[in-house]
Design a protein that fits this description.
Elements: E1 6-11, E2 24-32, E3 43-46, E4 56-58, E5 60-61, E6 66-67, E7 70-74, E8 77-80, E9 89-95, E10 98-105, E11 113-115, E12 119-125, E13 132-138, E14 142-145, E15 151-156, H1 158-163, E16 167-173, E17 184-189, E18 194-199, H2 212-219
Parallel strand pairs: 2-18, 4-8, 7-13
Antiparallel strand pairs: 1-18, 2-15, 3-14, 3-16, 5-6, 8-11, 9-10, 9-12, 12-13, 16-17
InterPro entries: Cupredoxin (IPR008972)
Organism: Marinobacter alkaliphilus
Protein name: Methylamine utilization protein
Length: 221
């Protein structure tokens, strides 16, 4: 199996200062390895002392695609899957964080799905092979997604900074990681205020048929 290459460089605003023990902001820049191109929509998180409140939200289907393609929700959240197409869909996941199967339907399923475990949930449609989406379920209140410039800023909780005077765990995930079943994890200095992460990613899917592997795995269940 090919191994993902992940390089992380922590840039301290002042190299000689001691680790700070109060809350601060951490600026994260995610780049494609070998080209320095920005990586948009990467999910970046840091453990915090607070568990986020669950939310009620949705991923809708339109033009035979999931919208949004990536949804980040706190643990315990409810997600509905309304169908806004003029064709039926069959939504499923067999990811360890949440396995479910919404059989062929139009309009709206009978009940939302509750995501009660943290992790990466990959979505597929048994009718339309090319459809793919992701729910990232988090148990931390400190998370965000990179913008089109590959950047996101996270507030570091004062309690986390105090309890982790040596280092803080940084988690970065993207759907095109060579192994996208879990985020890449690195320890960064507690005093870090700017961090650059480079990721080795699979090429973007060129055709609808490029997601046939997910369909084949479904049929083996």
């Amino acid at each position: 199996m090919k191994t993902s290459t992940v390089t992380l460089t922590a840039l301290l605003s002042m190299p000689a200062i001691p680790a700070i023990t109060s809350g601060h902001e951490l600026s994260v820049s995610v780049r494609l390895v070998g080209s320095d191109a920005p990586v948009a929509n990467a999910v970046v998180s840091v453990p915090s002392g607070l568990r986020p409140d669950p939310v009620i939200t949705e991923i809708y289907q339109k033009d035979r695609a999931f919208h949004p393609h990536i949804l980040v929700v706190p643990i315990g959240s409810s997600v509905d899957f309304p169908n806004r197409d003029n064709t039926q869909h069959h939504v499923y996941s067999f990811s360890p964080a949440k396995t479910f199967n919404i059989e062929l339907y139009a309009d709206r399923p009978a009940a939302p799905i509750i995501f009660d475990k943290p992790g990466i949930v990959e979505l597929g449609c048994n009718i339309h092979d090319h459809m793919q989406g992701f729910v990232v379920v988090t148990d931390t209140s400190t998370f965000g997604q990179t913008n089109e410039h590959g950047q996101v800023t996270l507030p570091i909780d004062p309690g986390v900074a105090k309890d982790n005077q040596g280092s803080i765990t940084l988690n970065v995930w993207h759907p095109r990681l060579l192994d996208n079943t879990h985020p890449v994890t690195r320890e960064i200095g507690n005093g870090s205020q700017t961090v650059v992460v480079t990721l080795d990613l699979e090429p973007a899917p060129a055709t609808e048929g490029s997601l046939d592997r997910l369909q084949q795995r479904f049929r083996k269940l």
